[in-house]
Structures are given as structure tokens and as C-alpha cells.
Amino acid sequence: QPDPLLRKTLEAHALSQLASLDTDSDLTSKVRHSIQQQLMHGITRQDMVAEDLGMTSRTLQRKLGQEGVSYQKLLDEVRQKMAEDYLRNSELAIPDIALRLGYSETTSFHRKFKAVTGKTPGEFRQSEKPGR
């Protein structure tokens, strides 16, 4: 039987998710994409992202500031999303994931990841395994 309360809840959730997607400006999306592309090569630098988008590093900072975000915030978000994806969908060792995401030290990766999720990368990987 259809559940009208569940439907309302799911619709409200879907609308809030769509609204959060709409808050990303075109520039924010491009910066996220550029960061992700760089991280796939194991590097990320603000000047390289700016160059990729055809502007100076200072102009990029200023434009992001006008939108209420910073390069560092976007970098942290992309790294976190990629870290969770690697932990869920790959068998890569945690130090390898840290290196791929541009962390110079595995401990830095551990600390940042735990601050966001409340779990270490290893605990997160265990909790995300199917059947748990």
C-alpha cells in the first residue's frame, strides 16, 4: 500500500537535495570539477585550477569569496567525497588513498577524515561494507 507520509517525507528530502544542488554556481561546479581532475593525478594547486579556468589565482579567490566559499573549503569537500568513494569502492590501502588525495602525511588524512565523519578511514570502510 502507498504510504502518504513516507511520500511527503521523500518528496521534501528530494526538494531539499535539489535546492542544495542549485546553490552551486557555475564557477563553484567548475572549480570542484577541476580539483577532482587534478586529484586524480595526485596533485592540486589553486594556481593550476585558476589557470584551468582561464583566470589568475587572485581572481579565482575573489570570485569564490563573492559566492561565500573558499578554495580550501571546496578542496576539503572534494577530497572528502573522493575519500569516501575510495574507501567504499576500492581495496586501495589507506596510505595510498591519502597520497592520491594530495595529503603529504597519512596522519593528516586520518585527522581530517575523523573530524568530518567521526570515524577513522578504517572504521568508515568497515561500516560501509555490504551486509553491515
| Radius of gyration over C-alpha positions, nearest whole angstrom | 18 Å
The structure class reads mainly alpha
Count of alpha/pi helices: 8
CATH fourth-tier homologous superfamily: Homeodomain-like
Strand content: under 5%
Per CATH, the class reads: Mainly Alpha
Proportion in helices: over 70%
Q: How many strands in all?
A: 0
* Low-confidence sequence ranges: none
Oligomer: single chain
User: Quick one: overall form?
Assistant: flat
Span from first to last CA? 28 Å
Q: What is the third-level CATH name, the topology?
A: Arc Repressor Mutant, subunit A
**Whole-number tally of structural domains:** 1
Provide mean pLDDT, rounded.
86
Q: Main beta sheet, described?
A: none
CATH architecture label: Orthogonal Bundle
Order of helices and strands: HHHHHHHH
Explain how this protein is built.
With about 130 residues, the chain is mainly alpha-helical. It has a single domain (about 5-130), classed as Arc Repressor Mutant, subunit A (Orthogonal Bundle), CATH 1.10.10. It is built from eight helices and no strands. It has helices spanning about 5-20, 25-40, 45-50, 55-65, 70-90, 95-100, 105-115, 120-130. The radius of gyration is 18 Å and the shape is flat. The two termini are about 30 Å apart. The relative contact order is 0.09. The mean pLDDT is about 85.
